[in-house]
Amino acid sequence: MKKAFFASPAYRSAKSRAFFIAVCLFSTAAMAPLFLILWELVEKGHRQFRPELFTHVAPTSMEAMLARISGEAIPGGILNGLTGTLTVLTIAILMAIPLGIWTGIYLAEKRGMLMARLVSSLSDLLQGMPSIVVGVIVYVWVVRPMSSYSALAGGVALAVMMLPMVVRSTEESLKMLPVSLKEAGLSLGGSYMSVVLRILLPSAFSGLFTGALLAISRVMGETAPLLVTILGAATVNWDISRPVSSVPLLIWEFYNDPNLVGLIWASSLLLLLAVLGINILAKSIASKWKIQ
Amino acid sequence: MKDRLFKAGLLAAACMIVLLTAAIVYGLVVRSMDAFERFGIAGFISSSAWDSQTDDYGALPFIAGTVVTATVALVLCIPFSLSVSLFNGEYFRGRKLAVVAGSIIDLLAGVPSIVFGLWGFYTLRPVLVAAGISGQGFGILLASTVLAIMIVPYSSSLSAEFIAMTPAALKEGAYSLGATRMETIRYVSLPVASSGIFASYILASGRALGETMAVTMLIGNTNNIPRSLSDTGNTMAGIIANQFGEAGGLKLSSLMAIGLLLFLLTAAVNLVAKYIMKIVSR
Questions:
Q1: Is residue A57 part of a domain?
Q2: In terms of CA atoms, which chain B residue is nearest residue A191?
Q3: Residue B133 in domain
Q4: Are A38 and A183 in the same domain?
């Protein structure tokens, strides 16, 4: 260490500048994959990105092969995946968001208590759980008893993944509110329930909303847990007790089928744009309504 | 009365989390019992058999593959994520450029893992093949490289916060003694933030351990213990994703057992990281 300070000042400042440049270069390199991925998806997927993508179900391997042989574009789209993703996400949202917000309120209100500390650690544990393990456990508890793969099972799996994120964001945004807000409400004679529901929750709304959106965007592209819970379906299916497909699952199927592989780019592009769009929306809401 | 009911409702929601965790652990343990009874816990972990014909299963190659890919990914990601955290937490702290860079890195965390897998398969793999590292390109190195890119957001954003928390007085002290920017970072900021940075890398490695789709698309899916970086292998998450659909009986139970082991592994890693974090923030 001492040796470094005996070097000439010019050398040391040059070294410092070189270090700064290296930091900038490596940082740029770390960000580059986002643009490289987007560019590749746009370049390879824009031709498949047409109205049929949203109005037709995925083609069978046979149809795609015939189209390939005759030199046409692969027909069909990913309608069955879109409706499946919509169903599964709706189920997950309906389960995870109310429960997550409720638990988050509990954690913010009872901070420091034994039960709250336990729940907080468990929610960290759930958050770190690998997504494939979530899928496996939902297979045990939902798919096996119902003796069928189903949209419901997929929804439960995504809900388990969303839950800890919603809990955490609710807790954090409630904790950011000044205590005086709650005290003012209580001193005006408001009941505890009305203070929490009418004052604290609305004040923290932007935080809750952002947290929920981020949680949705995080699970939207999940493939692994759906692989073992919803199985996939070739047609549009609204029955939540039966197998459905989803966009990431379709991408996985296309990837594994040499005849359909041409469809991965447009579907991935759509998925990525949806995920990034929700992400950016969530961030802009957070910065716009930031609690002062 | 209403308040009581409301509070009971909040408590009930919290209890749901406890129940859920209990159900997860219980389900995993019960379902993996068959495999553990047949092979023994130590036998299952140390065996590298995976044969449906003889119904003989072991987890060693997958544990090895998981630990190796995650470790290599962690090493590969350090120069990049440390640069990002210095960029955001030191050089451009609080400036618009850091906000933009932080958002880009956050977006990278949002990219679905299957898309990372596709990109690794179609863009990075040909690069490795052209460089002559391995014939097909599949293997530990390819999987770890993509994993490294995937965990940069997790390790860098937390580290940046810890680096930014370095007391200004300490840094000013270093500057007043004539230290350059780099020397201040090297001898003041990084040592002060070191345990926080360490914890954030452990947390990131937890992510890498459980990653499924991208790894399974790139690692080559062979049930052997990887001998070198260019060797193929498989991970715990990968074998579950690949074989769960067609599995039954003892094989299903063995996959469940691997799931349980993976769950315990990530839980332990996360616990260590959270513990360090708690000590640091005190």
A1: no
A2: B3
A3: yes
A4: no
- Give the nearest chain B residue to A194 (CA atoms): B3
Euclidean distance between CA atoms B39 and B50, whole angstroms: 12
A80-128 pLDDT per residue, tens = 999 999 999 999 999 999 999 999 999 999 888 899 999 999 999 999 9
Q: Does one domain contain both A36 and A156?
A: no
CATH number at residue A89: 1.10.3720.10
- DSSP letter for each residue of B41-55: HHHHHH---EETTTT
**Chain B residues whose beta carbon lies within 8 Å of the beta carbon of residue A227:** 241, 244-245
pLDDT in tens, B54-112: 889 999 999 999 999 999 999 999 999 999 999 999 999 888 999 999 999 999 999 99
A201 within some domain: yes
Q: Cβ contact (<8 Å) for B149 and A107?
A: no
Query: Tell me: the pLDDT tens digits for B228-271?
Result: 888 899 999 999 999 988 778 899 999 999 999 999 999 999 99
A219 at B interface, C-beta within 8 A: no
Distance from CA of B177 to the nearest CA of A (A): 10
- A281 domain-assigned: yes
Q: Does B267 sit within 8 Å of A128, measured CB to CB? A: yes
CATH of the domain at B133: 1.10.3720.10
**Looking at chain A from residue 45 to 84, which residues have their Cβ under 8 Å from any Cβ of chain B?**
none
Q: Cβ of B18 under 8 Å from any chain A Cβ?
A: yes
B169 at the A interface (CB within 8 A)?
no
Which of chain B's residues have a Cβ under 8 Å away from the Cβ of A167?
17
Number of separate domains in chain A = 2
Q: Which residue range(s) make up the domain with A2?
A: 1-45
The minimal CB distance from A34 to the residues B7, B107, B266 is found for B107
Q: Where are the beta strands (DSSP E) in chain B?
A: 50-51, 56-57
Q: Mind telling me how many Å the CA of A222 is from chain B's nearest CA?
A: 7
Q: Any long-range contacts for B88-91 (C-beta under 8 Å, 24+ apart)?
A: B88/B156, B88/B157, B88/B160, B88/B164, B89/B159, B89/B160, B89/B161, B89/B162, B89/B163, B89/B164, B90/B163, B90/B164, B90/B185, B90/B189, B91/A20, B91/A23, B91/A24
Residue A2 has pLDDT above 70, yes or no: no
Give domain status of residue B131, yes or no. Answer: yes
Looking at the complex, report in whole angstroms how far the Cα of residue B63 sits from the nearest Cα belonging to chain A.
14
Of B209, B193, B224, B219, the C-alpha closest to B263 is: B209
- The b-or-e profile of B261-280 (16+ CB within 10 A means b, else e) is bbbebbbebbbebbebbeeb
pTM summary value: 0.93
Query: Do B183 and A5 make contact, defined as CB atoms within 8 angstroms?
Result: yes
Computed over every residue of chain A, the mean pLDDT equals: 90
Whether residues A192 and B103 touch (CB distance < 8 A) is answered with no
Q: Same structural domain for residues A231 and A149?
A: yes
Domain range for B216 is: 56-281
- By the CB < 8 Å criterion, does B118 face chain A? yes
Provide the 3-class DSSP secondary structure of residue B210.
helix
Task: Quick: pLDDT tens for A41-67.
Answer: 999 988 888 888 888 888 888 888 888
- Is B115 close to A13, i.e. CB distance below 8 A? no
